[in-house]
Design brief:
This protein is an alpha+beta fold and 589 residues long. The protein has helices at 5-19, 74-83, 180-189, 196-203, 209-218, 233-247, 289-309, 311-337, 341-353, 388-431, 436-448, 487-497, 527-539, and strands at 23-31, 34-41, 44-51, 58-62, 87-92, 99-107, 113-121, 128-135, 138-144, 254-258, 266-270, 281-285, 364-368, 377-381, 471-474, 480-483, 503-507, 515-517, 549-555, 559-560, 571-572, 576-580. The protein is built from 13 helices and 22 strands. Strand 1 and strand 2 (34-41) form a beta hairpin.
Length: 589
Amino acid sequence: MAFDAGMAKAVCAELRERFLGAKVEKVYQPSGDEVLLFCRRRGEGRRLLISASPSGARICETSLTRENPKTPPMFCMQLRKHLAGAVIAGFEMPGFERVVEVAFDGFDEMGFACRKYLEAEIMGKCSNLILLTEENGRRKVTGALKSVDFTTSSKRQVLPGMTYELPPAQGKADPMTETAQGFEAALSLYPAERPAEKFILDTYQGLSPLAAREIAYRAGCLGIPAGELSGAASLWRSFAGFRDRILAGKFRPIMLSRSGTAALEPFEYSFFETEQYGAAAVQTAYPDFAALLDAFYGTKEAIAAMKSKSRDIESVIGTARHKLLKKLPQLEAELAECAQMERYQLWGDLITASIYMLKQKAPFCEVTNYYSEKLETVRIPLDGKLTPSQNAAKYYKKYAKLKTAKDILTKQIEKTREELFYLASVEDAAGRAESEEDLSGIRAELAAAGYGAAGHKAAKTPAAGPAMKVSRFHTSGGRELYVGRNNLQNDYLTTRLAKKSDFWFHVKGGHGSHVVMACGPDEEPSAEDFTEAAETAAYYSEMRNGQKVPVDYTRIKNVKKPSGAVPGKVIYTTNYTAYVEPKKPAEAT
């Protein structure tokens, strides 16, 4: 993530406008590495979030609500003691580093006015939040979100009572004070084989890899070794332009999402428009950095939360799939043995035809194969303890047994493959779940199908049960669209809710939701309605990140559910196929 010193400067500028003079009313610690200050200024309440999470360290205003633990952590209690009622006096950055210092004007235990500080060190896995108080002109550590002792770090300790020191310098230059001569000298000393963007990243502090790549890209030097650069002028101009933009406070909140994906999952954010990704990324501008960071981390947290909540489903599916994948090769191996049954029948026939010639208690016999045009001699092993007729009966019995086994094994293999296909469809639905309600429906479906958490067989859902809730949307032409979010909903939608005249849509050759577009017997929807319905079916499928996704559609009267088929499985005829870009419906009800 790109919360570098440039982003910190941009956010600090925004925070000064909104929080200077604000009074801290409440202090919360929703999680082990996040602190939330509820402040009020001029009658307006605002939330200041400071996170020391290794993957999401940041400081920003937020509008997202978070649940708080019933018992506040010790650091939260300490912050309440020192900061409740204090007024925010400033947001500063010591140099061009990822450290934001929030100053508070308040009172000490004796009632005297004093200034306290909250140091937000935004440094990846080393991120921390430290409370400081001033004593005799020196800032002392009063408390820390993450205490650092000698066992953790030999370079710098953060413990109550110690004098606060900034994180140790990395030996990098401040890009905000660099000159053309200094830049050229540093480039000349840099290893010639390393690329230009690495030179920017290794030489100057506070810049993220995204910023370093962008500087090199705009100079036409991205990926080019430092020793092969024709000169430092182009790279310096790009570097200086980037620096001047920061010094001038020209910031723009930008979210970067991968293009070609229907869901537009964000992968990066920045305080500048990027050029390095070209058409591979979609850039979305936000009105402010608070909205940008809420959108970015809100989306990331929602995805992570859904993955966490669906782990029990993944576990049940994984266990069932493992058993089936172990069972399938065994069944196929047994079926391969059934290929011998024709030989056993032949041996029984040949022994019977030549029984008058065979000796008793012989270990084998050699007889003519009357069923072959070549009339070759066949050597047949015999059981010496049995008579020739008993040997013939033994081979007939083996033939009958394998013939029966072949029919059973063929059905079992087909059923096993169908079950694997069904589990894949459930897994796909779980991966596309957007709410706890969707996951609950999938859990109910697995239980109804016999995949209980404890492995016990659950009762089947009756064919005629209560009405289910399915997702509803509208096309731009006003047509109602119904979308099943799991296989039980798909069955209910297609076999019970939909009318024969409605149109049915499903991604071709893959897992996905059944989509039904309401339509009267004599009505013919517009081409736009068909396209939007097909786009919806493509979006709610395993191909939602594809392009030109094939979607089959036909009238409901042409869709049938085979007897005894797994939930969600249907067959259909007289269909058409549309190739569309997956798109989520804009209007939900």
